[in-house]
Here is the input.
Amino acid sequence: MERLEIIDLHASVDGISILRGVNLSIKKGESLALLGPNGHGKSTLLGLIMGNPRFHLDGGKIILDGEDITNLGPDERSKRGLFLAMQNPSEIPGLNSADFLKAAMNAHRGKPLTLFEFYRKMEAAYKEMGIPLEMSKRNLNEGFSGGEKKRNEILQMLLLDPSLAMLDEIDSGLDVDAINVVAKAINEAAAKGTSFLVVSHYARLYRMLKPTRAAIMVNGRIAVDGDPSLIERVDREGYEWIKRELGIEIEKEIAPSMNQVSIGVCATKEAIDNGK
Ligand SMILES: Nc1ncnc2c1ncn2[C@@H]1O[C@H](COP(=O)(O)OP(=O)(O)OP(=O)(O)O)[C@@H](O)[C@H]1O
Ligand SMILES: [Mg+2]
Here is the structure.
């Protein structure tokens, strides 16, 4: 990948507008830290870049090395070098981890790997991530602990060797040793030329990764795009200064209608009404 460009991206989930004009670009060799308050659209943006069909695109374009990939499926994007480590990786009962890894790696290649080649690569990746190889026999993420799921995402990154890896809160749930292992794997990939888009709420991970740039997403838009010193500022001061200095009012919930109806609320209301 030489350059990924996000142009005026608008998107919604279940009719609720989440992204409201995102402009962002990432060049080869860059490592971009993406911060922002909870619920302001970071995961939605990463999901859209990867082609998650759950999000509805209302406008804008995603251009990868001059090619418009806005309407490509996630498999095609993956073949072009994009990778997403999800914030909440799904458990897939019935799908053996090793079978999944082999299928994903072979889908990227013209000629399938021999069983021996695959096993060698898989064994090395499990070792690098400090995951017992026994876990390759288990179903994908099924019953994995929070930290195991996160390590397993980076294991997939190592085996698929993307040119742009997007990591969504990869540090959440990791113990201290695991965070070191994950950071080392990311830094080694970056040294070999992989670009990164890293979402995290914590300066700790960023101190280990040393991103080249940082951006802040607020209200479904990129409010600030600047140098990595933004990370320490957010760590010290939070996001209040954005309103003070940029005049951007930070919305409490950018998707408020989600909370309007729930069975719990209706049942509680009925109980209160009956008790009157
Ligand atoms: N199915 C849905 N229906 C309605 N709203 C949704 C749906 N899925 C996501 N949203 C809302 O979209 C908004 C953006 O969510 P997103 O996951 O992109 O936020 P985020 O910036 O990644 O937050 P966090 O830092 O907490 O991970 C949230 O308010 C979320 O509740
Ligand atoms: Mg998120």
Summary: Residues 3-275 form a domain with the Rossmann fold fold (CATH 3.40.50.300). Residues 258-269 have pLDDT under 50 and may be disordered.
